[in-house]
Amino acid sequence: MRISRSPTPASQTRVVVLTADAAFEDSVRATFSASSQIGLDVVKGRLAEHGEIDLAGATVVVADVDATDAAELAALEGLMLQIGSWPPVVAVTQDFDAAVARRLTQMRVADFLVKPVPPVELVRTCARVAKPVASAETTEAQIFTFLPAVGGAGVTTLAVQTAMLLLNSGARGKAATCLVDLDFQHGACADYLDIEPRLNLSEIEPRPERLDRQLLEVMISQHPSGLAVVAAPNRPAEMRLFDPDVVTRLLDLVSSHFDFVVFDMPRTWFSWTDSVLLGSDKLFIVSETTVPGLRQAKQLVDAIRDRLGDGPHPQVIINRYVQKMFSAGLRKSDIQQAIGDAFLACIPNDYGLVREAIDRGVPLEEVKKGNRITAQLRKLVLPQVAAKPAKDPADGAKKFKLSWARS
After folding, report:
1. Taking 90 as the threshold, does the pLDDT of residue 165 lie above it?
2. Closest Cα partner for 371 from 389, 347, 390?
3. Which candidate among 30, 127, 168, 215 keeps its CA 20 to 30 Å from the CA of 288?
4. d(C-alpha 158, C-alpha 338), whole Å
5. CA 162, 165, 170, 176: dihedral to nearest 10 degrees?
6. How far are the Cα atoms of 15, 179, 204, 272, 308 from residue 407, in angstroms, in the given order?
7. pLDDT digits over 120-150, tens only?
């Protein structure tokens, strides 16, 4: 559907209003007619009754929809897909609740108002959303990836505590840090931190290109510490193989908006696993102090080296290590001999401390300051942050993008 309009100066703001409400139309006409700098076009009728609407030249679109009508909301969603990123859309509804707010946010509307709409509020809202927001300069995140060699090695605990260390590593306040739980079937990051997982991959999967910073914000869970967490609700009886485009799009976006990103990987190897590992700055393989655990860690190191070639060098961390003076158990020298040059360090065992932190949903440091686990992780992680090499301007193509690693 094309809108009949008269020529207007290029500098003039053009507002397109879609409404079937005669009273709202009269209010809009009275509101915008007072300014010669605003051109107004009104499309009458319910949004669901119109086909494709020509919005060429529009600065702002005001869509008046019935939020109780599924067809109207579906029509608005179709309009959003048609528009893309510009022009911004302000949704106006008569009825409003949390479900409507979530639906509108997922559609990426620029703002929403509830009737009756004061004229001054409508003008202010249109003026605000009509200003193009300068895209924030993307950062080159440092990526720390934790990959289990065996089940139950404590990968999630180490990933969570590493993320907390990175969060508090900023010289002037907290560093932007995101913990991403990539175990979509049995992930526990949200449970360990006592927060609600909000990532809905099924919603992104049909159109991965819809995922932008605004939609990502809806799907990020915030811990009281300031840590951002990307985690999906647990689906223990549901094994799903997501399109790699969905996962790589998500991780591309995360890596572009945080200083540090920590990945908690599943043990299963998926079609997108290579991409994640290739994009990592530090790759830690976590195992336990048993002969099978050491063997599987060594096998995983060799497999990654074969698959990724000159990619990140995997380093093995042995978790829950107990050193005994007089014991027939494995010693650190035995571990070094079994793992070879990939061996990095042992994390001391303190099961009681870890269990209390998990039950309370807090970092280990909050339970016991200066504990041995955090102290050892600090030695492994923070020097890596300080030693990050300056970026070579000629190396821009190597900026972390998971998509470049895909075959």
Report:
1. yes
2. 347
3. 168
4. 22
5. 50
6. 45, 26, 22, 10, 12
7. 777 777 777 776 544 444 457 899 999 999 9
142-389+396-405 shares the fold of 13-129 = yes
Q: Cα–Cα distance between 266 and 159 in angstroms, integer?
A: 12
Chain mean position to CA 4: 42
Looking at 229-320, list the stretches that DSSP marks H as alpha helix, in order from N- to C-terminal side: 244-256, 273-278, 291-308
Task: Name residues whose C-beta falls within 8 Å of residue 269's C-beta, 6 or more positions apart in sequence.
Answer: none
Structure tokens at 126: 């249109």
Contacts of 244 (CB under 8 A, 6+ apart): 270, 271, 272, 275, 406
Distance CA 30, CA 27 (A): 5
380-405 pLDDT tens trace: 998 877 666 544 433 433 344 444 34
The full set of domain ranges for the chain reads: 13-129, 142-389+396-405
The helix (run of H) or strand (run of E) holding residue 365 is: helix 364-367
Place of tokens 């908690």: 264
CATH of the domain spanning 142-389+396-405? 3.40.50.300
Q: Structure tokens of 190?
A: 């949200």
Q: Which residue, chain included where needed, has tokens 């990020």?
A: 220
pTM of the model: 0.64
Per the CB < 8 A criterion, the answer to whether 252 and 216 are in contact is: no
Which residue in the block uniquely carries the two structure tokens 């002969």?
Answer: 291
Q: Who wins on pLDDT, 58 or 10?
A: 58
Per-residue pLDDT of 228-237, as tens digits, reads 999 999 877 7
pLDDT (0 to 100) of residue 386: 64
Strands (E) located in 182-321 = 221-222, 228-230, 260-264, 282-288, 314-321
Contact yes or no for 186/234 (Cβ under 8 A): yes
Nearest CA-CA partner of 87 in 126, 34, 121, 138: 126
Task: Give me the helix-helix angle, 119-129 and 22-32, nearest 10°.
Answer: 70
CATH class (in words) of the domain with range 13-129 = alpha beta
* Structure confidence by residue, pLDDT tens digits, 315-343: 999 999 987 665 666 788 889 999 999 99
Please state, in angstroms and rounded to a whole number, the distance separating the CA atoms of residues 261 and 370: 24
